[in-house]
Give the backbone structure.
Amino acid sequence: MKYTLVLISLLAIFNGAFAQDNYDVDLIPGALRNRANSCIRNEETVVDMRAPENVMVTVKRAITVFNENGEDEARLVLYYDKNTSIKAIKGEVYNAVGKPISKFSQSDFSDMSVADGFSLFVDSRVKHYLPNINQYPYTIVYNYEIRNKQNLIIPRWIPKPGDDVSVERSSYTFISKPTDDVRIKTLNFTGEPEVTIDDKQKKMIWKTSNILAVKTEPFSPDPETYRTSVQIAPKQFTYYNHKGSYQNWEELGKWVYNDLIKQRNTLAPTTISMVKDLVKNEKSDKDKARKIYQYLQEKTRYISVQIGIGGMQPIAASEVDRLGYGDCKALVNYMQSLLKAVDIDSYYCIVEAGNEKVSVDPQFADLAQGNHIILCLPLKGDTIWLECTNQKIPFGYLGDFTDDRLVFACTPEGGKLLRTPKLTAQNNLQVRKVSLNIKDDGTANGNMNTVFSGSQYDNSESIIGKSLIEQQKFLKNSYNIDNIDFENITYLQQKTENPKVIEDIKVNLRHYANINNGKMYLQLNAFNVTRSIPEIKARRLPVYINRGYTDEDTIIYSLPDNISTDFILPLKKSFESDFGTYESNVSLDGKKLIYHRKIKIIDGTFPAEKYALFSKFMSDVNMADHLKLMLSLKK
Amino acid sequence: MLNARFKLLQYLPTHSMKKIFFFLLLSSTYLTVFAQNFDFGSITYDDYEFDRKKLDSNANAVVLKEFGTARVEIDDATGRLELLFDYHVKIKIYNKEGFENANVIVPLYKDDSREETINDLKASTFNYVNGRFVETPMDKKATFFENRSKYTKLLKFTLPNLKEGSIIEYSYRLKSPNLFNFKTWEFQWKIPKVISEYLVYIPGIYNYNVSLRGYQKLTDQKVELARECLRLNGANIDCSKITYLMKDIPAFIEEDNMTAPSNFKSAIYFELSDVTNPSGAKTSYTKTWKDVDYELTSDKSFGSQMKRKDFYKEIVPAIVKDAPDDLTKAKVIFQYIKKQIKWDNYYGIYCADNIKKSFDNRSGNVANLNLNLIAALSAANLDAEAVILSTRENGIINKLYPVISDFNYVVAKLNIGDKSYMLDATEPLLPFGLLPLRCMNDQGRVINLKKPSYWIDLKASQKTVTNYILNGKLTNDGKIVGTLTTISQGYAAYAKRKEIKKYSSPDEYVEKLDDRLVKIKISEHEINNLDSVDNPLTEKYEIEFTVNDGSNKKEFYLSPFFINAISKNPFNLNVRTYPVDLGAASDERIIINIDLKDKYSLLEKPKNLAIALPNSGGKYLLQTQLDENILSLSQILQFNNAVYQPEEYPFLKEFYSKIIQNQKVEYLLKRAD
């Protein structure tokens, strides 16, 4: 009797094991193959927080690669450093029918440093493996184990890493002591985790299955709004010999300020008296801050120095003072210290920087968010924001790298969430005025003046101060018209809180207007044709326009005498939609042909079904931008 | 007595290379005053005030002085000979754009047993403050080493207290166990240099081949005798003391469509030719092609693998049994190898494993794949040879003497009758006989197991050909409805196949295409020969697009350039310094026939055009006409060369410009009532 029981349970185990490890590609349901370049057959991530300084992460991952483009998902990239060690890696590769064809281990991985561009000392390294299989489909199975000597940042679960990946099964297990206090952020997950608790441990398991691959769509919102993820943040934590506890932004901010920044902002007495002397004639705090910012921009430059505690603690202000360079943390900390010397308070702010606006989550505090530091000056009635890594940017202007998003300010009183200023469609301007003389042979020349402001200032800021050769190259790229040449190039930067770049150039367009059979062909919109956007049938995701803008072009063409202007009629086009407005018109004033065009695109999130209208609008604009006039030559 | 032989060879990457190869004779003039190394920190007001307009008004920074010395010495600790390289430079920084020149990376070689080391690193920034130069020395601890990869370690440092107008200066000593390539000296950088001088001491027992690459010429060079510069096993050895000097060196600026920058950058390279041992015996390193042929054909990672046709003696007869002739046999074998073994993305002329192992693992480097292919072809009694070459990004080969390390790739050459075919099994999507674009780099060397090796031109065996045929009709509501057929060959077909294969099915590719072409609707599609790569790829689409709003005007304009209209000039630069390398000749043809259904007259139309590039470099033909109610267009755009010289650039520019001008014109159609 006893024997039978054992046998039955053994059989059950074997059956289970067999079912789990059958990687025959035919077992993948058809729906999971549709639009998929790869399919995650099974992924099991187990995070075992044995102690704050001992978090074991075990991952088993089986991926079927259907074709060459799915290969990226088969790639395994593991980062490690002093606090993260790779305990074991092994894996096998299976062919289409699920028969094992090869095995690999840690020695088959390549090992390299993670330095990007010029970075002084990056102590992170990476192990990398990609199998060489030329027969698709195939399945690769990884098993690896990583030990983290910290629990401030716990690996996140994102079961579906890309649009072209489908997921058969994926699970995430978090094990801790029953007494451990953790906060959990779950996004786009339906259901509840399975929880089991005994004396020794508390185990939570999240599971998902059968997620389909989808087509990638342009103008998509932040993936956080639709993809499943789980992020865990323990209350008590250890990080590079620092210990702390937090449950909200306020407490986390206090820790960052007290443990990472405070002791780093001491300056030498000579520097302090230098700063005091520097601002002695300035009246207001704002003027003082402006003066000091100018000093910072002249004295320092940005160098990536990713060293020390996981790239989270700035090097000391006195060091930056001596060296004249630092990374974003160091430069912000230095600027903060200089301001402190003249009793101006400021906040060290962690931000998720990038063109796409991403806010820190007000509901969930953790340090996995954010990748850049900026400085906030809460002056009375006038909050000033400073980007400290850029030597060209004006005082008080952040630009599209950190605009309009929630950032995390670390202050002595604790963390605070603040929103950076928004660059609006009305203010993101490009205003162009051109006068072109057209000669008998169709050659056009004249002056062009363009003013860039708001986020459009950012697009052209980098050209300021570049050599003439580089400016020529840049212009040839921006105004890619056949036979275009530029002369008398000047760029003027208005370095105010609402900065502008003013571009003044003389252009010459040889044979711009073609002459054929007694007619002159003139494309009216010479410099700013808006491109159409793809049509997407059955749009899935909402339409997201990250940043709005307004472009205004006025071109005055002086027509040659041999054009008969009798037949030129005024022409007007205008469209309106939820996404913006467009108008262009042509009028004649003696021999002057005046073309005026204005387009405004509004930022925001719109329902998915509106995409077709958006596409139609952009297509109409594109058509209108190609408007050509056929001018008759006098006989 | 000087027993070392020095000849300086300059070789330039041009297409008519054979003519350009030349030897620079040793200069006998001693008029130029050669500077010695300069003192560290001796910044003068002239340095500070150096007017960049004298050299290049666009420069963000200028190297004022650069001096290097390389010599051979005995390392006291190990007793081994090593290379000592002393480097010293002084740079004027004009503006913030020039700051990046203060971020320095020195790559160092390392392997399991030996490594290059850096000593005596000194670096300072000099600023002119209140009428005097203030030095800010760099901290020793501000230097970092990074293990970049298995064989490379990087020394990184950046200079402190940098301002616009600063002068930076740094120097270091590098010790290297590598005597084979002595130490390369790069005269040309991204920023211009006022003076760059390199002094080498070469012991008489060493014989190096020295070559100068690039477009710049040496201002001067000098050879002297340095007595007893090295003591080896109790004997004093004399050295040749050679100074290479270049002045007013322009900045190196990369351009589009060019092969490896190292082909064009001015630099001096060394390769060890032979060493005379104390006993008087000579060990030869750089050899004649005869020696290299022997070595390669007997090398266990090269010739020995080529010879292993016995490995295929059972496989090959089975797969070629139905093939009627040698060419078909070869095609079947080529197909088999491409399917059997996958390229692991590594280059090399030597096999990483033996061919059996890579066959079993179904993966291998370039040599593994192509030597497998040669062995398999030989097993079918076909005449197959190996061709070693250097890929485009690896640079041009020095053809004055064999430099095996210049080669990084090997392909197969198959000879049937008086025809030969170049084969590379790394890219399954390329047809039989067409090498990947990366191999189109001047010449390769054919290695035969029995005969002496020889050079062969590497030219694409097929043109890049694309044909578009549109047959359609104009509907009453102003649409054109019809069938567009595209036929692609050569690299065009390869690129298309690669693009289509990015999607999980051709249907998805077409769906994406339909999305992208906003104005065109694709209703049906048929893609043929996607996988039979030896045949032209054909795509057939039923399409529909709007040409006017259909308000049935009696007179309307219609642009005939629906397909691949040219509106931007790819050659828009005012000056071009280096050759334009397009990789392969190309041919694009467009035929459009549109049935207007009703009677129209053609009031206006683009001119019929026939223009050509000089020396039969290419041509453009355009013909349009209205015949009865069929409106037709035929257009041919041909480039006959893969490479165009800088002096041909203005012609290319004008050629495109003429096409663009003409394509601005539209048809004006008038309905006949």
Q: What stands out?
A: Residues 274 and 284 of chain B are 4 Å apart (CA to CA).
